[in-house]
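Quick question, first post here. What does this chain look like in 3D?
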Amino acid sequence: MRRIAVVLLLFLVITTTLSYASPTSPYINGYIEGYISGWSDGGIQIEEYDGTMHTLSFSQNPVLLIDQRPVNLQDFKVGMEVYAQLTGRRISYMDSFSTEIPGYIPPGGKVRSGIVQEIDRDQIVVKLATGGTETYFTTPATIVLKKGVNVPLSTLYEGDRVKLYFDEAGSALISRMHIEGDSVVVKDLYRGVLNAADNYNTALILGDVEKLENGGWKSVESSMSIPYTDEVPIYIGGQTVSPRNLKYYTGKVVYMAVSSFFGKTRAEKMVIKSQYESTYSDKIEEINWFTGIFELSNNKNISFNDGTIIIKNGRLVDQYGINPMSDAFIIADGRTGDLAANVIYIYNEDINNSNIGQNYIYAGRLDQILQNKVVMEDFFVINENSWESFDDEKELYYDNDTTIFDLEAGEKISPEKFYAGDYAVDEDTDYAKDNNLKDWYAYMFTDGDRIVGITVKKNMDSLLRQRATNGIIGSISDDPLVGWTVELKNGADWSDRKEKWIAKTVDTSINVEKALIIKDGKVISADELRIGDRLYIIRDGFEAKVVIVK
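> Answer (accepted):
Ran it through. Tokens below.
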């Protein structure tokens, strides 16, 4: 009997341990959803939707809401649907709704937070703060806000941190979306020697610190302290490393992606170098998702895993952010025949942030200007980072919110003046001949067929020598002779001949004084550009023609 009792006790311990480690455990997920089934001494019993029962206690001063209004614990009734967040093993937040109409909640009552993993038109996959992933959907009525300003949905990127609001408890249709600024934008990628892991102050001390810049490593500090939390993912050879074990890796070279989180630098992800470093700058031709291996255009095969630091559009993304035909800078680990990517820095940039966008850049002759409509003749459009010509007409539309700039006069003009002026004339008429009038030329940025902004000038530029360039503003100045000029770092030029982005090895100066500058779907002035802004530029040598802040 004693042996049976011991066996039963061991079985109870094992099964209890396993239940705590279960992927469905609220202690793992950090939240729980379901129905109140009863009360216990100092706690609550919640039944999940799948029937799993949990008895949970409350932290000190938990936030308790019903219909988004503060309430007391006794206001919650058995049978109510609840959503609760846990801090440790206690409920720190719980909300519910008193309505008798199933599924109805006050508009915006259901809230979810996470990081965008995938974007496919109106479908958005979000990795929640709890660790799981969910698929949500946008509609034409979805409100998108960034730093409190209404912006087009096309400004959304993979890697963006978002807060989503829903009008129905069981709905996946997003009512309102808040893009949380630059909180997950990768500020820098560092390489350094791990000198110490200060668990007390939650800081990593790196020595011989270098920063990835212009396709190479640039020395920045002999020693640097970088804050981190226990949630920062740390890997070596594709395997996770506990922060508690970092002290055993001192002296090792590490790669660290850091962000500016509300103005403060912090670690977002770290990889410990395992063997030998190799670097490649090439196009990813094919990806085998089953084996986790991609092939470069030089036929080199390199594996990738959950630990790989992948930077795309300036953001930290997961492995599904890699796409075939991506132009990338790769830092590989291992021997020649067995390489694994520690870092993948993707250079690819486009006019649109994702396949949500329908933005275009046009150039050409203004053949007709009608009220609220422009007809272009023999026009050009940027297609895959190069000008493509069309021997045809193109109708585009403007309105009172369209920004129109006369480069000859150096001033912004109204739609009325644009329509009434001589920016487009019938060159065969006596009036045009007597006054020596010719059609003007324009650069335009459009949302579909709607003109967001347009610059007009008397003479057409040579488009053959223009190229697409991307990069990050390292410095900006207002020169008294040439006007606003930006210095780009980590830049790349598009090569038509090689059909790929070619990383620049030096900083590039570009004048933006007369450029059409677009940010978040609106025209801005050069003095609104900021250090750290990522730019997509159509330029003619030193002079930018169109600039999109990414």
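Residues 24-96 form a domain with the OB fold (Dihydrolipoamide Acetyltransferase, E2P) fold (CATH 2.40.50).
Confidence is low (pLDDT under 50) at residues 1-24.
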